[in-house]
Amino acid sequence: MLSIILLDCPFLIDVKMKKGIFAIMIFTLLCVSCSRTKQLQKHATKAHIEFNKGQHDFGTIIWGDPAECEFSFVNTGADTLIINEVQTTCGCTIPQWSQEPVPPKGKGAIRVSYDSRRSGEFEKGITVFSNADNSAMLLVIKGKVTSNPNKFIIGGKKDSDSTSVQKNSEVEHKNE
């Protein structure tokens, strides 16, 4: 904007300076345009990973029951995708994935197991590192683990069942 004002002011700058400023503006515009084109070409030649979902909600899980899910993905880039590593935020979350390279338009999956021998709500992160242009992808699993009302827990008590506590105390009195 400033250059347009300067080019239109005949009393501020002579003709040679106007041409010089105009040439610098054109040169700058071409440089910016070329660098942006190179950036776009660079991204178009890399692998790109796209997951079918970024989060899985297990809902309510019974303590000790298996909790597994799968995050499917497609390599939508132009180069072969290689998953270098998958990290989790906790040892209770175990990822499994193929070590094989995924060709362009190829598919793959990351299976995640959660150790449901911990009660309460949980939310865990799984980070996928690859050679893709979006190289660090975060996946999330969440849910709530509750005890099984049909299984006895240590001490013979059922979770949230006051009658079992009463029965246990009655048994203790009979044995005395």
Structure commentary:
With 176 residues, the chain is of the alpha+beta class. The chain has three helices and eight strands. The chain has a four-stranded antiparallel beta sheet, with no helix packed on it. It has a four-stranded mixed beta sheet with strand order 2-8-7-4, with no helix packed on it. The longest helix is centred in the first third of the chain and has 30 residues, at 15-44.
Brief rundown of the structure:
This protein is α+β, with helices and mostly antiparallel strands and 176 residues long. The protein is built from three helices and eight strands; from the N terminus they run ααββββββββα.
- List the domain count as a whole number: 2
Helix content: 25-40%
Question: What is the CATH-assigned architecture of the largest domain?
Answer: Sandwich
CATH domain fold name of the largest domain = Immunoglobulin-like
Q: How would a crystallographer describe the biggest sheet?
A: 4 strands, antiparallel
- Assigned CATH superfamily of the largest domain: Immunoglobulins
Distance between the termini: 97 Å
Tell me the number of helical segments per DSSP (H or I, 4 or more residues long): 3
| CATH class bucket of the largest domain | Mainly Beta
> Which segments are poorly predicted (pLDDT under 50) over 5 or more consecutive residues?
39-43, 156-176
